[in-house]
Specification:
This protein is mainly alpha-helical. The protein is 53% helix and 3% strand. It has one domain: Glycosyltransferase (Alpha/alpha barrel). The two termini are 37 Å apart. The structure holds 2-acetamido-2-deoxy-beta-D-glucopyranose (4 copies). The site of one 2-acetamido-2-deoxy-beta-D-glucopyranose has 12 residues, from helix 15 and helix 18. This is Six-hairpin glycosidase.
Length: 463
């Protein structure tokens, strides 16, 4: 059986490009791409492209699918088969990379890509739990009134400027790659029948006390279910969602979930994810009305909190007094709710859902785009390892809204961002960085790259 590797996928993407572009220098590029010379600079902490190319071949590619395939082959240089996560990005970020991969697999039927996606799901579901940065904390908080903190060093907080700070356990993100790295390592580790997991996955393995993290993984496994139809992924997502229902209600308006087990902040992201996960499950799991009910309760609560401001965008969270705290309107906060409303409308149609989604989407495009239509988060370009993921999450969900309720504004935004990423935010190794308007800021990492890829994937679907 042919086993896929990131390298063979890279070569596949190049051969695709070759059929599109018959340039004399192309064969030379393929030669360069066959050895580690091309891949290594990125693997070893990547400080810039260390090889010369006579021509930046990828620049002339305009086909959205081919662009995304090139970018996927670059992404997989970061995939660590031993951890099931992508090196250079955090725990919850990897859940988003997984979601992006399933989304690409949804729109690109290329059999090699389909096979690679399934292998990634099968590998990640078994390997990643060992990297949960704060395991057990949720089961502890449920069983005891007083929390004895599992003090691993994992923490997420917001500074006075409203910027997010995440700290990981010591050594958590130590990059395993070394001089002896071989592409074959990944090939070997990605074996196994993706359809058959030895044991049912345990939802507790995916809980880290931050309910947004939990729910990113739930959505990731729903994406894996959509591609594979493997019930184990869906059941895992259900189990994770059920765990987060234990965080309901907060002290504000007798509803909503807290950001984390610390119960010290009620924010938009955790609650939007709760809505979106419930609505996604309503369209997939058996107990439809149960999930529709949760999604509706969340939406009702969310609207009453006032987190949606007068401009139609969504601020970060609530004050101690349960009022909109007027903190940053992060791009991802304008995005997750869109996918939630689309799925809720599918499960339990009501025109007001799509009206609300359109209002938020248009307000966000207006507020967060520059004069070329390119998205920026307020603190950009360098906002740390959390915000580096946000813009892609917005575009991923904007695309879901566009599928349900097409609008020229969305097409324009998706295309402007995807084109700018490709033309201005990509290096010669097809690594994609943080500033979608450019110039390329080195080094790119799996978070900036996968987030950029969300826009490339969205561009496949809009014409
Ligand atoms: C882009 O490439 C994909 C994959 O090769 C192909 O299926 C699709 O038709 C192409 N799209 C256009 C617009 O040429
Ligand atoms: C289905 O939802 C009901 C509440 O509507 C709940 O009591 C029941 O346990 C759920 N069943 C399953 C199989 O999740
Ligand atoms: C909210 O914050 C913005 C700046 O981010 C500021 O211009 C505005 O006055 C604030 N509004 C309130 C009600 O504090
Ligand atoms: C990824 O790159 C962005 C942009 O340079 C940076 O802000 C972020 O901290 C990086 N992430 C990690 C985990 O280093």
């Amino acid at each position: 059986m042919h086993i896929l590797s990131s390298l063979s996928f890279a070569l596949y993407a190049f051969s695709q490009a070759r059929s599109l572009l018959k340039t004399p220098s192309y064969d030379f590029l393929v030669e360069q791409g066959q050895g580690h010379t091309r891949l290594r600079p990125h693997v070893q902490g990547y400080v810039g492209v260390q090889y010369q190319e006579p021509l930046n071949l990828a620049a002339s590619i305009t086909n959205a699918t081919t662009r995304a395939e090139f970018a996927l082959s670059a992404l997989q240089i970061w995939y660590n088969a031993g951890t099931g996560l992508w090196n250079t990005c955090g725990w919850w970020n990897s859940a988003n990379v997984l979601t992006m991969v399933s989304n690409l697999a949804k729109y690109d039927s290329n059999p090699q890509l389909q096979d690679l996606a399934k292998r990634i799901f099968a590998n990640t579901i078994t390997q990643a739990p060992a990297k949960n940065p704060l395991p057990g904390v949720e089961t502890q908080t449920l069983n005891q009134k007083k929390v004895s903190l599992a003090n691993t060093g994992y923490d997420k907080s917001m500074d006075d400027e409203g910027e997010l700070i995440t700290t990981y356990p010591e050594g958590w993100s130590k990059i395993r790659w070394d001089e002896d790295y071989k592409v074959e390592d990944i090939k070997l580790k990605l074996q196994g029948d993706p359809a058959n997991l030895a044991a049912a996955p345990n939802p507790n393995d995916w809980l880290d006390g931050f309910y947004d993290d939990d729910l990113w993984w739930a959505l990731g496994w729903i994406g894996a279910y959509d591609i594979t139809k493997n019930m184990q992924y869906l059941q895992l997502a259900e189990g994770i969602f059920m765990a987060t229902t234990k965080a309901w209600p907060t002290r504000c308006g007798n509803g909503g979930i807290f950001w984390s087990y610390k119960k010290d902040y009620m924010n938009a992201i955790a609650n939007e994810l709760f809505l979106s996960t419930a609505a996604h499950l309503a369209n997939r799991a058996q107990n439809k009305s149960f999930y529709v009910d949760w999604a509706k309760r969340e939406l009702d609560w969310f609207q009453k909190t006032g987190m949606i401001n007068d401009r139609g965008t969504i601020n970060d969270g609530l004050t101690e007094q349960c009022k909109n705290n007027n903190q940053t309107t992060w791009s991802y906060n304008q995005g997750v709710i869109l996918g939630g409303l689309v799925e809720l409308n599918k499960a339990s149609p009501d025109p007001s859902y799509l009206t609300l989604a359109a209002k938020i989407a248009k307000a966000a495009i207006k507020e967060l785009s520059d004069s070329n239509g390119v998205l920026h988060d307020k603190c950009g370009p360098l906002c740390g390892g959390d915000a580096s993921q946000f813009k892609g999450i917005f575009v991923r969900n904007l695309q879901l809204l566009h599928e349900a309720a097409p609008d020229a504004t969305y097409i324009k935004s998706i295309q402007a961002n995807a084109n700018s990423i490709w033309n201005n935010n990509r290096d010669e190794g097809n690594m994609l960085s943080i500033n979608w308007a450019g110039p390329f800021i080195a080094p790119a990492n799996a978070s900036t790259h996968s987030s950029s890829m969300d826009a490339l994937v969205a561009a496949i679907t809009v014409k």
